[in-house]
Design brief:
A 6-stranded parallel beta sheet has the order 3-2-1-4-5-6, sandwiched between helices. A 6-stranded parallel beta sheet has the order 9-8-7-10-11-12, with helices on one face. Helix content is about 40%, strand content about 20%. Strand 15 and strand 16 form a beta hairpin. The C terminus is likely disordered. The protein is elongated. The chain is of the alpha/beta class.
Length: about 500
């Protein structure tokens, strides 16, 4: 929970209180004027009567994230700011210069505070205005958590990471190192998509590929980017303590970490990292800017899918620092024969239910080919939703796309497959992973039979759920989904 402290509460302080009081977390106001304190209390604000420049006001307050100094007396504000900075060296401090401050007091306040509100240019709502009420301070909190990591930070992308995850992780690594924290970007699985490999190679990105049984004790902290839970679409133990989560996907359950930046209305995690860089006044180097810009373009499908104002603003910030020539080279790589084969099988095995298409491609050698096949099939005339899936290593992998429809794919995938695996995503781009369960490993000669069994189960579930519409009363419960899935697999195994 974010803890806030205000020392002094003049006219500017009251304006800040009105803005800040509704934010999540706590707010305590200290002022020496009894009537002001009583007024604040009647408004439901926790207020204490005391000298805001007395060091005793910070005693017994072990943690403050954001502090405001907002009295009318310039010298008292300076002294109060000094008290706060001495007690909490890493606090984000916003200070009002006061009425008619001297040049000396203004300079001293500038040295003490992260942000100074000057009476000549005073617009409180501009100082505090943000997307969700706290963006102005979110970056500082991220810095504080990164700085507190006592050792190396492991930054983990989701399995088989895409450009958005890769670029975001590399940018976060740079942010960690900018505050003196060693960091390393890690992932499980493989980077097999030809564009993703070109992306990593052309930008010369240093990424560490881990095996599931690798020792993680070398990491003093853990960060997750482009996903939000350990053990879900990564191979970290589910009980891994997490320090930082930065993601744009809507979570299925509460996210636990010391710092959480989840903005599901934004089209790419890369946009969130660009936002943090911009708030810090950091011009990204060419490699980071190019990576983040490409991550945004890929996840928003060149600003046509799940795009927000924040994505355009991030792209405008990154573009002057990016190498567009490298982007062109990344976007025109050679395509592997396996990918062409997967797309071919997806076309050949397609099943239609109105404007919804599903296709089982059977055994996989490259999971990334599923997303490419789902995108390609969405170009077919009369098709608004595509679902392409295949299996490898005992798991069914599913990729879905939609356009021009009121079907919410993220909700649909969770409803259809969330109780028998992991599933989720956005309204027009989603995925799932489903353990094969009772069938276990199969021999090569059984592949055709397995494709038929899995194809029928997954396709039927998906078609049924789309017809029922997300969140409608027509859905089967999650328990019924599990039971039906297991029964069908068991019956197939007995034949």
């Amino acid at each position: 929970m974010v803890s806030r402290l205000m020392l002094g509460c003049g006219s500017v302080g009251h304006a800040i209180v009105e803005e800040v009081a509704e934010w999540p977390g706590s707010l305590v106001v200290v002022d020496e004027n009894e009537s002001r304190v009583e007024t604040l209390r009647t408004q439901g604000i926790s207020a204490t009567r005391a000298d805001p420049a007395d060091p005793a006001v910070t005693a017994g307050r072990p943690h403050v994230d954001i502090a405001f100094v907002a009295g009318d007396d310039p010298e008292l504000n300076r002294d109060s700011a000094r008290v706060v900075r001495d007690a909490y060296p890493n606090v984000y401090l916003v200070a009002y210069a006061g009425e008619n401050p001297s040049e000396t007091v203004s300079m001293e306040l500038s040295d003490l505070a992260d942000r100074v509100i000057d009476p000549g240019t005073l617009i409180v709502d501009q100082v505090l205005s943000t997307t969700d009420g706290e963006t102005a301070f979110r970056t500082h909190e991220l810095q504080r958590v990164l700085r507190d990591i006592d050792g190396k930070l492991g930054i983990f992308m989701h399995d088989n990471p895409d450009p958005d995850a890769i670029a975001s992780a590399v940018a976060l690594e740079g942010l960690a190192e900018s505050v003196g924290t060693e960091a390393e970007t890690c992932y499980y699985g493989a980077i097999s998509h030809q564009e993703n490999r070109a992306f990593v190679n052309l930008l010369e990105l240093n990424l560490r590929n881990l095996e599931p049984d690798d020792d993680l004790s070398e990491f003093a902290g853990i960060a997750l980017v482009d996903h939000s839970s350990p053990g879900v679409n990564d191979q970290l133990p589910e009980d891994t303590p997490v320090d930082v989560v930065i993601d744009h996907h809507p979570p299925n359950h509460p996210v636990e970490a010391r710092f959480v930046d989840l903005r599901s209305r934004v089209g790419a995690t890369s946009s969130l990292l660009a936002d943090h860089l911009e708030h810090l006044g950091i011009d990204p180097n060419e490699r980071v800017a190019t990576g983040l810009l490409y991550g945004i373009r890929v996840d928003t499908k060149d600003f046509t899918r799940e795009v927000s104002e924040a994505d355009f603003e991030a792209a405008a910030f990154l573009l002057p620092h990016a190498d567009t020539g490298t982007l062109e080279r990344v976007e025109s790589p050679s395509i592997t024969p396996d990918t062409f084969d997967t797309i071919s099988r997806a076309i050949r095995n397609r099943e239609l239910d109105g404007t919804v298409l599903a296709s089982c491609v059977g055994a996989l050698s490259d999971r990334d080919a599923l997303a490419q096949a789902a995108d390609r099939l969405l170009n077919m005339d009369g098709v608004n939703v595509t679902l392409v899936f295949g299996f490898m290593d005992g798991t069914v992998y599913v990729s879905a796309r939609a356009r021009g429809t009121d079907v919410d794919l993220g909700e649909t995938m969770r409803a259809a497959f969330g109780q028998i695996g992991s599933a989720g995503g956005h309204a027009d781009m989603a995925g799932a992973q489903i353990p094969l369960g009772l069938l276990g490993e199969v021999e090569d000669e059984e592949e055709a039979s397995l494709s038929t069994i899995v194809g029928e189960i997954v396709t039927d579930r998906f078609f049924e759920t789309v017809r029922s519409r997300p969140n409608s009363d027509g859905f089967e419960s999650g328990r019924e989904h599990v039971a039906a899935f297991d029964i069908q697999l068991a019956e197939s195994d007995d034949e």
